[in-house]
């Protein structure tokens, strides 16, 4: 009887572990918006779309732990941290493509190659640019 109870308990634990460790599928692209004007210079600039949606750059501590592997087209570099000095945008620095994902994350890449991961969840930044 004790062996039966232990066997059932062990089986339940093994099923629970298998469920927890099962990989989630990739996070799919919901939308791609071309010709988005945005300049990611200091890391606290919000991106406003014409339809009213707003995206916020990840905070530096979020960037350190951000795993972009579940996102489709994830062979992109991660975001850069805030810059010490801000130069005016060069050619192609302030226009690019915004890829919005199903989970509210977004990836912006300028025509010149500046990149940023953003979220539709509001952030507060403790620095000015």
Care to describe what's here?
The chain has one domain (26-119). The chain has a six-stranded antiparallel β-sheet, with no helix packed on it. The protein is globular. It has helices spanning 2-21, 60-65; strands spanning 29-37, 47-48, 54-57, 95-101, 105-110, 115-119. The chain is an alpha+beta fold and 129 residues long. β2 and β3 (54-57) form a beta hairpin. The termini are far apart.
Features:
alpha+beta; 6-stranded antiparallel beta sheet; 2 helices; 6 strands; 20% helix; disordered N terminus
**Roughly how many Å apart are the termini?**
70 Å
Low-confidence runs (pLDDT<50, min 5 residues)? Answer: 1-22, 74-84
Q: Give the integer mean of the pLDDT values.
A: 78
Supply the helix-strand structural class: alpha+beta
Number of helices: 2
Q: Give the strand content.
A: 25-35%
The overall strand count is 6
Integer tally of domains: 1
Largest sheet: 6 strands, antiparallel
The best one-word shape is globular
Give me the strand/helix succession: HEEEHEEE
The radius of gyration computed from the alpha-carbon positions, rounded to a whole number of angstroms, is: 21 Å
Helix content: 10-25%
Side by side, the strands of the main sheet go 1-4-5-6-3-2
């Amino acid at each position: 009887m004790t062996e039966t109870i232990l066997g059932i308990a062990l089986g339940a634990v093994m099923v629970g572990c298998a469920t927890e460790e099962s990989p989630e599928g990739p996070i799919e692209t919901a939308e791609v918006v071309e010709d988005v004007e945005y300049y990611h210079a200091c890391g606290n600039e919000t991106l406003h779309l014409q339809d009213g949606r707003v995206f916020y750059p990840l905070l530096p501590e979020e960037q350190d732990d951000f795993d972009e592997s579940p996102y489709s087209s994830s062979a992109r570099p991660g975001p850069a941290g805030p810059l010490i000095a801000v130069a005016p945008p060069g050619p192609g620095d302030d226009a690019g493509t915004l890829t919005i994902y199903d989970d509210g994350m977004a990836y912006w890449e300028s025509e010149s190659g500046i990149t940023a991961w953003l979220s539709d969840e509001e952030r507060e930044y403790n620095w000015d640019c």
